[in-house]
Write a structure and sequence with these properties.
Pfam families: adh_short. The chain contains 8 helices and 7 strands; from the N terminus they run βαββαβαβαβαααβα. By secondary structure, the chain is of the alpha/beta class. It is globular. It binds NADP nicotinamide-adenine-dinucleotide phosphate.
């Protein structure tokens, strides 16, 4: 039986991805900062483990407890929207600690394990902000662009070991907990000088026609995990696919 570990499965894209692989008959190690058992159907193929991607000890402990894995998905992420000049550097640190260094730390801990067993696949979830510029998201975009470049380079050195490296690029998903989870972090990040600009940007968010569903991301991760063609980037969701095609 194939097995996968996914970070950030308490809600949104990560939860849908974990459920999808479980439904496809995989052994799923669903990780989250605080495990919540009621989220999944009871299954002997499900293992719930605590994992905070900003805590190296917690990453090692989760990988030790997970045993042999075929695939690892770095989905955990946090957002911040606002004017960069008003975004405290502590917030920029927090976003990079989770989105960028958290992803790198999980990869670094997983690589020797995958190498020892002769291969596997790493999937890093970034964002469609790496396909097209998004206003008022400078720090968040930078955190995801770094993961894009990191994964693209890493793919070369891991290929000889049979480890495939993939990127999944979701578009805007209004139905996940992403905005709510970032609510406190985003307070006060639009100073009066930016108010008119921000109003137009936020009105644009409210009027989007194409968005991304949780199932789009689960299916893109599924395709990325199975892929043996060498494709690196997998846009997920109608908006992300349209942006990728426009490039
Ligand atoms: N929704 C969007 O519009 C959108 C668009 C493009 C890309 N994305 C990306 O898609 C991924 C999933 O986001 P989502 O929309 O599904 O948002 P979400 O519902 O907020 O899910 C994010 C998950 O990350 C977890 N997480 C946060 N910090 C963590 C940490 N330090 N260690 C481990 N887990 C942590 C959260 O768990 P807790 O319960 O512990 O907080 C949650 O399970 C993120 O990487 C995000 O950047 C989202």
């Amino acid at each position: 039986m194939k097995s996968i570990l996914i970070t950030g499965t308490s809600s949104g894209y990560g939860l849908a991805t974990a459920r999808h692989f479980l439904a496809q008959g995989w052994r799923v190690v669903a990780t989250m900062r605080t495990p919540k058992p009621g989220l999944f159907p009871a299954s002997p193929n499900l293992q719930l483990l605590p994992l905070d991607v900003t805590d190296l000890g917690s990453i090692q402990a989760a990988l030790d407890a997970a045993g042999d894995l075929d695939a690892i998905v770095n989905n955990a992420g946090i957002g911040v929207v606002g004017a960069f000049e008003a975004t405290p550097m502590a917030t920029v640190d927090e976003v990079f600690a989770t989105n960028t260094f958290g992803t790198m730390a999980v990869c670094q801990a997983a690589i020797p394990r995958l190498r020892a067993r002769g291969g596997g696949v790493l999937v890093n979830v970034t964002s469609s902000v790496t396909l097209a510029r998004m206003p008022l998201a400078a720090a968040y975009s930078a955190s995801k662009a770094a993961v894009d470049a990191f994964t693209a380079s890493l793919a070369f050195e891991l290929e000889p070991f049979g480890i495939r490296s993939k990127l999944v690029l979701p578009g805007y998903g209004p139905t996940t907990a992403f905005a709510a989870n970032g609510g406190d972090r985003m307070q006060g990040l639009v100073p009066p000088a930016y108010a008119a600009f921000a109003e137009k940007v936020f009105a644009g968010f409210a009027n989007v026609t194409l968005t991304t569903r949780e199932s789009d991301v689960a299916e893109a991760v599924w395709r990325a995990v199975q892929d043996t063609t060498g494709q690196l980037r997998f846009p997920a969701g109608a908006d992300a696919v349209a942006l990728a095609q426009a490039r």
